[in-house]
Every structure is written in C-alpha cells, then in structure tokens.
Write the structure tokens for this entry.
Amino acid sequence: MQNWHRQFFGRTQMPPTLSGFVINEFFTLRQAELQAVLSRYGVDMRVGAALQIGFLKMCGRALDKFQQVPFAVLEHLNEQVGGSPPDLATLRAFYSNSPRILYRHQQLALDVLGLVRFEMETDAPRVLETICDKVRAGIDADHLLTEIRVILDERRFVLPAPRVVGDLARKARARVEREISAAIERSISPEIRAHWVQQLFDVRADGMP
C-alpha cells in the first residue's frame, strides 16, 4: 500500500471532496468488477453497487453511511454502468427503504474483491503475532492502529470497527508486556529485583524520596 493511500484507509464515511486522480484510482471498475455489476443489477441499482466496490477499495471497509458522496464520484460511476447518476438524497432514501439491498451491494463488493469479514474469535490468532512484531519494534499507539489495518488488508480482511482494531492493539501490547516481564524474571533473580524495589521506596539521606 502506498503512503498516500493510508489517508483514506479505515474511514467510515466518504470524504467531501476527492481529486480526479483518487476517483480514477478507486472508482474506475476493472473488467471483472464491471461485469459483476452489469450482470446482477438493472440500471437503477448499478451505481450503488459500483459505489460500494470503489469505497471498499479506497477505505478497506463497506460504506454504510451516506452523509456525503461527491457528485463527481457518482457521475464517474454512471459513465461506466449506464443510467443517470442519482443525487445523494435519492441514494440515501433508496438504501433506507431497502436495507437488504445495501447489504447485498456490500457483499457483492466483498466477493468481487476477494475479501472476508474479520471475526475476532477465530481470526485474531492468525494476525496477533504479526501485530506483536510491530509492538516489539517500538511503533507508537497511533501508528500501531494504522499498521494493524494494513496487516488486515494484506490478509484480505474487510477492516472491522475501530473498537475491534483497538482491541487487537491492546491484546498485542499485553502479550509483549508479558514477554518482557517473563524475560526479566528469567534473567534477574528475585533477590535482586526485591532489592531494586526496596531502593525505589527507601528515603535518601537528605530526606528526599
């Protein structure tokens, strides 16, 4: 993943404006993506399905909030799938009245891009050691969250909710802290450690702690 892409990765909403380069990069459908949309949906539903594919490529997760979608994106998608581009109010109302359609469009995007949903219980063990390597390397908390998203993307997972990403970070830090604690216990005798602890609480001769 290129550095400029990371600014969009993990977003839950569409940015208010996008450059022509970004629109072309993510919202120009590849042949297989275009064929999947054209073969499954009529004209009135194609732009919504194509929008899900583009957003998933850009942000690594499904688009489920429609506060804003730049008209340039809708127009660009319409040029590829046909029909007239819906305005944002129409798109929002369409999905509000048809939540199953929203889910189907999201699932189509996952299938076309070869992504799967992340399940904490079964999938966390598959990525936790790699995340621990980032913690051992000294990556700070904010950058660790970004690195976790990149790791999940490389394993072809749809990015989970921010809470789940945070839980993965906490699990990794806790594991590394346990490793460090165990290494200290193996390397330094209990007597020396007790002596160090005592020194921390001893009052100095000048009365200062």
